[in-house]
Structures are given as structure tokens and as C-alpha cells.
Amino acid sequence: MHVLRPIRETDLPGLVALARSIDGTLTTLPPDEAFLRDRIDESLRAFSPWVKKPGGEVYLFVLVDRDTDEIVGTSGIAARVGGFEPFYSYEIRTEHHEHKPLAISKDVRVLHLKQEHRGPTEIGSLFLRADRRRGGLGRLLSLARFLFIDAYPKRFDTTVIAEMRGYVDQSGRSPFWEAVGRQFFDFDYYTADVLSGLGNKAFIADLMPRYPIYIPLLPPDVQAVIGQVHHDTQPALALLQGEGFAATDEVDIFDAGPQVRATVADIRTIRERRTASIIDVAPSTANNSSHLLANDRLDFRACLGSIAPHRLGVMLPGDCLAALALNVGDHVTYVPLK
Asked: Is residue 48 part of a domain?
């Protein structure tokens, strides 16, 4: 049994150990103890009951193995991107060029640097340890966030985005970074991404090109990766597409990975979720991972399990009740996992 819950102050050693195992694949959680301590403090403040509207809150959840108490995964929500530190992306626009005397007409795709100061909600910081990538745990990590957003709509924007990791080759080289970013920054792609993840975004405003970049002027292999995802990110992209997320005309400024977007009310997990009273404890032998289950508290809990229908509500297996910190008579939110 695994349970998703808000991170706690006592989780720091486990979070540091998990970050060190990531080996640079999640730059929003670098293996820096001081930074991770700040991330935990930031998340604790985000879960304050006094928050009434989306601001700069960053919620961090951890997936915990209840048998060993190990942290095996993370996922997060930024209530609103932008604000004091602007949110940067490249917007792909099409410019029409025409010379009527010679009957020449051409549409050209162009990258425009975009700053967002009051943006939508963003999901991110998703990581699951390789030895746990089975049995629906990846879906639990990703989709449970939507049930929390649905339970506390005033804390979040009505639109949710996700920046997907862009294409890099087998050696970790980003063709887009080498062709564009490298020309303006005196360090590699990973360093730039980590600095941005650490909140040091001033260098972007100072050093990024202020003028549009004409895509046809880039090498063909670079043009080909704009809007493409890293191989390891394809399952996460497919999951979000199945939830109703669609590609936008924006890409990441470092690796040109795509940005996907959905209206909260249109997300499949939110549309199909139901809430019912827990009438009794179901036999544990009836438990399986057919549903995503959650409480609706700020002390959020989510797990995988089964729902046994009852004429007055539902029954849950005892291990699910314990994982969700619920009792008979409480209400549970549930939705089919797929």
C-alpha cells in the first residue's frame, strides 16, 4: 500500500535521498539539502488554511510506501506561475510575408520570448522511483493532484498547464539549447535549467535574446525537435492527453519541450470523480487498484483501491481507510483510475 500526502518537515532526509537518486533528471528537485529544506517550508506555508486565492504557493506531495515509510515519488502544484518572478516561454507565431508584384507569399514560424506575470496553475516536480513504476503508481502521483485542486478551487486558477521535458539525445545534449541558449549563456543546458529551478530567473531577462527567432534559420535537426518530448516523458504526456490536456503554441525556453494545457472543469479525473459516504469496511480480499481514492482535507491523502457499492454509499477495505485517515461515516472521493 502506497499513500500520497503533503510533504512534512521530517521528510527532509528521505527527500534528499530521493533527489540524489534522480541523477539530474528533475531540475526542480536538485540534490541540494538547503534548497530542499526551503521547498518543504514553502509547501508547509502553501497548505495554510488562510490561503484564499492563488498566489505564489507551491504544494509538494510525496508518495510513501506504508510498509517501509520510504519516500518513493514526488509531485507538485504551483498555484499560479509568474508574479514576482516572471514565467518565461517561447511562443510560436506565424508571420505572413508577401510581395504581390511577384506573387510571392510565405508563412514563417517565429519564436517570441513571452513573460507571464499572472499565469495559470502549473503541475510539475513529478518523479517516481524506477523500481515502483508499475501498478498504477505513476497515475496516482499525477492524477491525485487534480482531486486536490478540485477540492480547493479558490486556491488555484481555472486553467492548468504542464511543461513537458524536451528532447535530449543519448549523451544528454539538447539540440535546441546548443543552437539557441548556448549562444547567450556561458554554461550548459543542465546548469541553466537548475538555476531556473532554484528560482534564479534574473539571468533569463538579462541574457535571453529580446528579438524574435526565425525558426527556418535554425538547423533542420533543431527545427525538428521544437515541441518534441524526451523519450522518458512520452508516457507522462500520453497520460495528460488522456485527461484532456492539449498542446499549446508555447515551448520551453531551454529545450523547446511542449507546454500542454487544460481547463480544470474539463479534466477527466475531475469530471468523473464522485463523493460518497463510507458505510462500512469491505473485506480486504476485495481490494484492487481499480480506483483513485482521496479524502477532501487540507491534510490530503490519496491511494489506489477498490470501491464496494452499498445502497447508502460505499464500502472501503480497511487498509484504504487507514491510508486515507478516514473512518466509517466519513466521505471519500473516488474516480476510476483510467
From this structure: no
pLDDT in tens, 50-67: 999 998 899 999 999 999
Answer yes or no: pTM beyond 0.85. Answer: yes
- Is residue 293 domain-resident? yes
Q: Which of 96, 97, 230, 331 is catalytic?
A: 230
Q: Which CATH number covers residue 328?
A: 2.40.40.20
> What pLDDT score was predicted for residue 182?
85
How large is the average pLDDT for residues 247-260?
A: 94
Residue 285 pLDDT greater than 70, yes or no: no
CB 189 within 8 A of CB 177: yes
Predicted local confidence at residue 218, as pLDDT? 95
- For 331, the 3-state DSSP assignment is strand
Per-residue confidence (pLDDT) for residue 62, from 0 to 100: 98
What is the pLDDT at residue 26? Answer: 67
| 230 counts as catalytic | yes
Number of domains present in the structure of the chain: 1
In terms of residue numbers, what domain contains 306?
274-336
pLDDT digits (tens, 9 = 90+) for 113-153: 998 888 899 999 999 998 888 889 999 999 999 999 999 99
**311 falls within a domain:** yes
Examine the pLDDT at 257 and tell me if it is beyond 60.
yes
Query: Using an 8 Å Cβ cutoff, are 334 and 274 in contact?
Result: yes
Q: Please report whether residue 328 resides in a domain.
A: yes
